[in-house]
Every structure is written in structure tokens, then in C-alpha cells.
Write a structure and sequence with these properties.
There is one protein chain. The chain has 329 residues and is an alpha+beta fold. It has helices at 2-10, 14-25, 30-37, 43-83, 101-115, 129-132, 165-173, 215-230, 282-288, 302-310, 323-326; strands at 119-120, 126-128, 157-159, 178-187, 198-209, 235-242, 245-254, 271-280, 293-301. The chain has a 7-stranded mixed sheet with strand order 1-4-5-9-8-7-6, sandwiched between helices. Strands 2-3 form a two-stranded antiparallel sheet. The structure holds 3,4-dihydroxyphenylalanine (DAH).
Length: 329
């Protein structure tokens, strides 16, 4: 008995405690043996021996359990010490995050127009037909709807294909004059080297009294903006078509890679198309109930700007989260 008490006292790990338990209480343990030997004792002694053995059994059990708790607690403390993190330690591998090139470009565009007192407006990504198409002079079955391959939901809702619906929402919520931009994600069923199903646009809209807004104003503001983004480039306006503007134009800058000489990126034309714009079509003002106003609007894709500014050849790489690319910014 004292021999086992000593063993328990000396045990130094939960595993050794388990070994001792088996040695005492196991099928072949000392207690089992002692009880078995009782049959050799004299009958009148048996009750006394049994009582003693049971007392020893209880005592050893208590000692074992107590020691087990002590050892397990100690083991846990050790583990916590070993696995603990010292947040004050210097780590040579720690990396700092940076703004993603798309968001960085977005911020630069927003900053430019904010400085000109354009407000920043937002709208939902899940839109309805009215705001995304109808009110923008794109009635049902209008062929121009094919310009934007749309993701539809079952209940007539859709993922907005451009940020132009924010024009409509803003006009419905406020009265002119309006000077706003609308940055945000847009969605189209497209996927190749220059298209991803989700990308970012910024829409611009200015509305004031009839006769106060001209194409010259639009040209002036966009030229200043493109010089801010691309530096000393030439800017040209080309007649184009958008349902929500009339007249409409697409805007090109002289190719920043070959300086207008003609290269692979500008398809040998010397020009890069960067945005769409125009004078707001009267049908759009009718849709929101505006009378006696005039305005201009423009829209641009942020990824296209980021790709040109940072010379990124494949649009898709902007969304892969590859650190080797992102670390360069
Ligand atoms: N919403 C057009 C698109 O996604 C971009 C655009 C073009 C917006 C001309 C405009 C605009 O406001 O006037 O392709």
C-alpha cells in the first residue's frame, strides 16, 4: 500500500497515472490479487480483511484522482505556454495590405469629380426593368438591349448591367439642379480577356435649367478629367449611339503605349476608347417627370482605366487575388 502511494506521489504525467491505475485497479492489479487471496484466510478474519481492502481501495482512488487533476492542469499550462502567440514579436514575414488597383482607380475618379462638387450616389445591384432599361429609353424588345447581356432573376428582377439606373433613382428622389456620380459594381454575361461577369463603372449626370447645359460643357469637363487620369493625351469625341443620350459620343484618348503611332493595344488606330457620353435624351426626363431641364451624362468602366494606367493585359487577372500581381501596386 505505501509503495503505491509513493508511486502516485512520484507520477509526473497523466500517462504514468493511467499506468498506476491499471496496476492497482486492473483485472490483474494488486487489489484484484489481494481480494483473490482472501479465500486462503481464516473465516473469522475475512470480514476484517475485506473492510481493510475496501478502505485502501477508496483511499488510493482518491489519491489517484487528485493527482490526475494536478498533472492534467500542469500539462495544459505547458501546452498553452508553448503554443501561445507573442503579438509583440517582430515578424520578418508580415505583409501589409494595399489598395486594389481597381479601387485605387475608382478613388482617383471619385476624387476628381468630388472636387468639382459632384455628389456620390449609390443604388441597388439587384435592379428592376424600369430603372435599368425602361426609364433609360430602352423599352421592351428594343434592339439596343442586346448591347448588354443581362442576368435575370425569376421574379422580373435583374442584376444591373450599368450604373445608369442610379441616374433615374437620383432624379426621382431629388429636384434639379443635379450634379452626381454613381460608382459601383455592374454585371453582364461576358467572360474573356477584356470582359468579366462583374466589373465596375462610374456614371456621371448633370442636370440644370433648359438651355444651361451644352455639349461644350460636357466636352470641357471630360477633357479635364482625362488629362487628370492619363496626363498629356489627346482627346477626341466620336459620334455614337446610346439610347439614353442624344446626341451621343464615344471618347478616345491618343494611345498611351505608342503615343498615337499605332500598336497592338490600340489595334493600330493610335486611339483608345475610354468612355461613353452625351446630352440626356428628353425621353429620360419624361420618365422621371422632369420639365424644362437639360443635362449631360457619361459612363465609364473602371477596369478599363486600371488596365490602361497599369498596363495589365488580361482583365481577369484583376479578380484572381494573385499576390504576385497585387504586390506590384
Ligand atoms: N451605360 C453605358 C454602358 O454601360 C455607359 C454610358 C454611356 C453611360 C453613355 C452614360 C452615357 O451615361 O451617356 O455601356
Amino acid at each position: 500500500m505505501t509503495e503505491w502511494i509513493e508511486k502516485i506521489e512520484k507520477a509526473d504525467s497523466p500517462a504514468s497515472i493511467e499506468e498506476i491505475r491499471v496496476g492497482i485497479f486492473g483485472k490483474k492489479g494488486v487489489l484484484a490479487k489481494a481480494f483473490a487471496e482472501m479465500k486462503n484466510a481464516a473465516n473469522e478474519d475475512k470480514a476484517k480483511i475485506a473492510k481493510e481492502l475496501n478502505e485502501q481501495k477508496a483511499k488510493l482512488n482518491t489519491l489517484l484522482n487528485e493527482k490526475k487533476i494536478i498533472l492534467e492542469t500542469a500539462a495544459l499550462q505547458e501546452a498553452m505556454k508553448a503554443e501561445g502567440i507573442d503579438v509583440s514579436l517582430f515578424s520578418p514575414t508580415s505583409e501589409r495590405g494595399a489598395t486594389h488597383p481597381v479601387m485605387d482607380t475608382m478613388d482617383r475618379v471619385i476624387e476628381y469629380f468630388s472636387n468639382l462638387n459632384f455628389s456620390v450616389e449609390t443604388g441597388p445591384m439587384v435592379e428592376d426593368d424600369f430603372h435599368n432599361f425602361e426609364a433609360l429609353n430602352l423599352p421592351k424588345y428594343h434592339p439596343a438591349r442586346d448591347m448588354q447581356d443581362t442576368f435575370y432573376f425569376k421574379d422580373e428582377k435583374l442584376l444591373r448591367t450599368h450604373t445608369s439606373p442610379v441616374q433615374i433613382r437620383t432624379m426621382l428622389n431629388t429636384q434639379p439642379p443635379i450634379r452626381m456620380i454613381a460608382p459601383g459594381s455592374v454585371f453582364r454575361r461576358d467572360f474573356d480577356i477584356t470582359h468579366t461577369p462583374m466589373f465596375h463603372q462610374i456614371e456621371g449626370l448633370l442636370v440644370d435649367e433648359k438651355g444651361k447645359v451644352s455639349f461644350a460643357n460636357l466636352k470641357f469637363i471630360l477633357e479635364g478629367f482625362l488629362h487628370h487620369m492619363f496626363g498629356d493625351v489627346e482627346v477626341r469625341f466620336r459620334p455614337s449611339f446610346f439610347p439614353f443620350t442624344e446626341p451621343s459620343a464615344e471618347v478616345d484618348i491618343s494611345c498611351i503605349f505608342c503615343e498615337g503611332k499605332g500598336c497592338r493595344i490600340c489595334s493600330k488606330t493610335g486611339w483608345l476608347e475610354v468612355l461613353g457620353c452625351g446630352i440626356v435624351d428628353p425621353n429620360v426626363f419624361d420618365a422621371v417627370g422632369y420639365k424644362n431641364v437639360s443635362g449631360y451624362a457619361f459612363g465609364l468602366g473602371i477596369e478599363r482605366f486600371a488596365m490602361l494606367i497599369h498596363q495589365i493585359p488580361d482583365l481577369r487577372s484583376l479578380f484572381e487575388g494573385d499576390m504576385r500581381l497585387l504586390e506590384q501596386f
